[in-house]
Design brief:
Order of helices and strands: HEEEEEHEEEE
CATH architecture: Sandwich
CATH topology: Immunoglobulin-like
Bound molecules: copper (II) ion
Strand content: 25-35%
Structural class: alpha+beta
Oligomer: single chain
Low-confidence stretches: 1-19
Shape: elongated
Mean pLDDT: 84
Number of helices: 2
Amino acid sequence: MKTVYAAMIILATSATAYAGETASAPGTTQYFVNLADGDTVEGPVKVIFGLSGMGVAPAGADIENTGHHHVLIDRPAIGTGADGAEEFDMNMPAEENLRHFGKGQTEVMLELAPGEHSLQLVLGDKDHIPHNPPIFSEVITITVK
Ligand SMILES: [Cu+2]
């Protein structure tokens, strides 16, 4: 059994070593289709995810130039600060404010409390890790009535 565990640890370690190494296609953009920074909307809020330059594929699918959408809700932005940069090497955790769309969904209906909310899209590879270089949208702030 010990040998098996050792082998598993080596496999897990080597998989981690390739984290963040899935290449993105040059010029790819990710954006909100139906929302703009500063919008005031009624809840629940439909959010449509846009991606130009790459394709959408489910998590686990090893297909070149594809990924799946993630939405960061009221979370520190990815890609704009020292803390965010660290997250590029990591498997993004599934949390209430970091939602994965691993079936390849391209929209969601969000239940957001009235008030201001920040939203950002981030593309993840088959292992939920941002591409290299990472693909993410601008951060938008919306107000829910
Ligand atoms: Cu994911």
